Amino acid sequence: IMARRIRLDLLSNAGTGAGASFDWPGGDGVFFVEAATFGGGNVALQFQGPNGNWVPVINYATTTPISMTAVGMANFRAPAGPMRAVSTTATAVYASAVGVPANAAG
Length: 106
Hints:
Helices cover 0% and strands 57% of the residues. By secondary structure, it is mainly β.
């Protein structure tokens, strides 16, 4: 039996704007945007810093903020704390953050 990993459903058939924040337990994850009408917009992943400001989460091992302009996924690593997805212009957005195990055994 494989261990279940956290899954945060950040946006569900959402329109433009920030979704609700959810508590990320910390560690590696994959940000999925499964369906959306982008219309020139994007869907970004953000983390709330210690002073309450929302900052972009970067693609793992880069300095490039995650900002999806098409259906797909991006790897990230983030500390424990609040996380959210933000849609700019895109509508009908479904976005999730899913934990990735730290070892091959899951």
